[in-house]
Structures are given as structure tokens and as C-alpha cells.
Amino acid sequence: MELREPPRPRRAAGATGRNLLLFNTVLLALLLAALVWLRFDLAGPGGDGAAAQLDRATAAKLKAAGLDDQAAHLYERALSAGEGSAGERAEIAHGVGATYLDQGRCEEALRWLYQAETLLEGADGEVRDRIGGPVAEKIVACLERLGRSLAAKSALAASTRLAPPTAATDTASNPVVARIGERELRRSDVDAALELLPPAARAQLTATAEGRAELLRKVVADDLLLAKAERLGLDDDPQIRRQAEEMRKQAVLAAFIDREVVSKITVDAADLENFWTAHQDQWTNPETEETPELEEVRSAVEAAYRRQKAESAYREMVTEALAGAEVELHPERLAAEGEPNAP
């Protein structure tokens, strides 16, 4: 059964326009009801695979019609059916990732593109050759859009797994930058360490040849010192383990906040103007008492605006989390002995 895009209502005045809109709404509802009936009619012994194929074919038509949300939903459902070879599942995951990327939802796109990349490792050569390159390109595009340029470079270097290149190509894209005994340290290893540094330090270390040389020395030295510390058994120290666990929690929490709060912040032009009006004294020169025009400091103002919205959204998230759980707080028990309110 072929599902076509419902006819888009033309602009009409009065009752005619309303009737056309009602007709198209009813038609779309009937089409979706038919799709649901077909899916459950196909379910049963051996029916899941057919239903997954129907979902996949329908999703492709919905995507072509510009109905990306509906297409992504059917692609996900087809993949969750668990049917098909690794190559077929990789193609479905690639379809979901491509759909989300087209919508600009890069975090969700990455989830599916990485899944496609993993599935491709168990797929046959024909599928790897056909979609391996596009999957890698979309991963790099997502990381670039998210401002993770170093991670994008590493992904670009690592994408050689999808289509085995020559040794020369591998060396050119991800060269050996140091050797520690028999172990090789590649550029992607240094990029990974650089990704953990604050932006200012990152820019300083990569701006000059001397800075890059110092960065490499630090990465190698850290590796050697870490090996020495592990030989001394410090990695088994209970306090070190507690600190490592706390750092892991903070990293996971930071990633969660970045995904659920920071990445969802949008800049409304009118709201930004109001923010500027209320806070422009922050950019007033104390000596001349002159305030620049918004366009002169737009990037800084927008950063402050985003930071305020992120803090507000985070506070709301904390309030909702505490309200949605059985929580008892006893701050008085945190007071030191002898202080007021101490137990």
C-alpha cells in the first residue's frame, strides 16, 4: 500500500478554507489509522519482519514528503523490531540519524549514527562501502555543528574503520606524533587530551609551534607519570577511587545538562533586546560612561543571555527533580559542632 503526502490545504477565506483544512485533517487521520491496522494485521508468526519493512518503506516516503518527525518515529520502530542483518539495521539507523540531522537535532542524530557505525562493523562489504562514508561524514557534521571540532577531527581520522584505507592515508589523517617504548601515540590521542582543557588554554597551546610542542611533551609526560603511579598501586587507593567516581558523576551530569539544557537554548531576538536593555550597564565604560551599541558587543551579550537562560532552566530542573521524588533535607546537620543549629 503506497502512502502519499496528504494534499496541502490552499489558502482560502471563510468557510471554504476551514472545510479544506478539516478535510485534510480527516484524510491524514484515516491514512494513519490504515497504517496502524496494516501493522497489527501483519503482526503474528513471522509478521514482525514484514511490519518492520513496511515501517521502513513508509518512513522513506514520509521523509521524502518532508514529514521528518513521523519518518524518524517509524525508522526507530523498524529498528526496535530486531529483525534483519547487521547491514539492514545499520541502514535503518543511518536513516534515523540522517532524519534528525536534517532537523538540526544533532545530539539525537549522533546517537543513531554511532549505532549505525557500530552495526557496520558486522555488516557485509557491500553495505560498508555504500553507506560507511555517508555515516562518517554525518558524524563529523554533527560534531562540527555542536562545536566539538577536535572530536570531529578524531571522528574523521577514526572513520577509516568503515572503509579500510591504505597505510599512507591512515598516517596522513592521524599520524604518529610520539612513541613511548613500543607504543605509538597518534594525533587523535593528543586531540582527546586537548578536548578536556578550557577553551582559553586550548587556544593558547595550539596557536604556536612552541605551544603544540609543549602540549605534546605534557601528554607524553602525563602518560609516563600515570604508569609510574599505577605501578605504585595508587590507582587502588580508596580515596583516589572515590575521587574518580565523583569526577565520573560530574562528567555525566555535565553531559546531561549540556544535552537537556544548554543545547536546547534558543535566542529570541525580542527577548535578547529586552535583556540588553535591562543589563546594558554591564558593558558601560566606567571611565567614559559610554555604552556601546548592541551590535558592537552582540556576541558577549548573547553569551550572557544564554548563560542566564541556562541557569534559570537548571534551577527549574532541580526544583522538578526534588518535587518528583521522596526527598528529606536536613541542612541543619551540616553545621559544624558548636555552631547554631548544630545537632
What is the topological layout?
Layout lengths: L13 H29 L4 H18 L3 H13 L5 H17 L3 H15 L4 H21 L3 H10 L8 H7 L2 E5 L2 E4 H9 L3 H8 L2 H23 L6 H23 L8 H11 L18 H26 L20
Antiparallel strand pairs: 1-2
Helix pairs in contact: 1-2, 2-3, 3-4, 4-5, 4-6, 5-6, 6-7, 7-9
Please give a structural write-up.
Helices cover 67% and strands 3% of the residues. Residues 9-18, 20-48 and 160-170 have low confidence and may be disordered. The protein is an all-alpha fold and 343 residues long. The protein has a two-stranded antiparallel ribbon. Strand 1 and strand 2 (183-186) form a beta hairpin.
Order of helices and strands: HHHHHHHHEEHHHHHH
**Class by SSE composition:** mainly alpha
Low-pLDDT windows of residues: 9-18, 20-48, 160-170
Q: How many whole angstroms does the radius of gyration measure?
A: 27 Å
Overall geometry comes to globular
| Portion in helices | 55-70%
Observed structural traits:
mainly alpha; globular; 343 residues; two-stranded antiparallel ribbon
What's a quick, concise take on this entry?
It is built from 14 helices and 2 strands. By secondary structure, the chain is mainly α.
